Amino acid sequence: MIHAAKGGLLGGVADGYVGWKFRSAFRGLWVRGPLEGGAQARLVYANHTNWWDGFVLHQLGRAAGWDAYCVMEEHNLARYRFLSRLGAFSIRRGEGSSSLETLRYARGLLRRPRAAVCIFPEGELRPFGARELRLERGVELLARVGQVPCVPLAIRYVFFEHERPDVLVQVGEAHAAGPLARFQEALSATVRALEAVTSLEGFTRCVAGARGVAERWDAVRGRSHG
Questions:
Q1: In whole angstroms, how far apart are CA 102 and each of 85, 94, 122, 139?
Q2: Strand pairing of 28-32 and 204-208?
Q3: How many Cα atoms within 13 Å fall on the side-chain side of residue 46?
Q4: What three-state secondary structure class fits 183?
Q5: Cα–Cα distance, 91 to 106 (Å, whole number)
Q6: Which pTM was predicted?
Q7: Rounded distance, CA 86 to CA 207, Å?
Q8: What angle do CA 218, 159, 124 make, to 5 degrees?
Q9: Which of 9, 61, 134, 203 would give a disulfide with 68, using CB separation of 3.0 to 4.6 Å?
Q10: C-alpha dihedral over 108, 111, 116, 117, to 10 degrees?
């Protein structure tokens, strides 16, 4: 198993690089719903539609003040080992001993203040809004051993009359551990709520990205008239 290795010089470099990469790719990260911080640990589970999803959770965790970690398949984390510096730790799917080791490790993380262990329970990339969501039991088992609030998140990438896309995050209602059906229903409802969105009304921007050509041009015109 590959453990998370947050902090240190390499951690700072990785954190800075990911932040720069995210801000240069998107106009902003927008959130609707209660993004709670504080000392309480939490299990965060989200739909998985895009290569960027892990970085979105990283930026979201920074904005919320979480000590964020993310479960990642071991062959991918071994390939991109620097992600462990951002809080990624591994699991080997289909291997019972690896799953047990990962559960024990995650349980230890969830005993830390401000910890947020993030998981994509679909186990694979699927298009946004694909019906229906199919979750694996890992999220249920992790919730049972962690005994912390479970927070469903929906992530969506959209263009709203801008050259760069916006990242929208809908935060669902936190709930206690329970059967897999509870996670299925909560995440499906959160995704449906985000699927209906047609504007940024009701959202708060947590991370500002790069300005586009139109915005820079407007700024130049504004100065020229000032």
A1: 17, 12, 17, 12
A2: antiparallel
A3: 29
A4: helix
A5: 11
A6: 0.90
A7: 17
A8: 145
A9: 61
A10: 20
Longest Cα–Cα distance in the chain = 67
Q: Residues 120, 122, 125, 131: is their CA dihedral positive or negative? A: negative
- Inter-residue contact 167 to 208 (CB < 8 Å): no
Give yes or no for a contact between 87 and 58, defined as CB atoms under 8 angstroms apart: yes
Closest CA to 6 of 82, 101, 63: 82
**Whole-Å CA distances, 133 to 52, 104, 128:** 19, 26, 10
What six digits make up the tokens of 12?
Answer: 């700072």
Measured between alpha carbons, how far is 101 from 95 in angstroms, rounded to an integer? 10
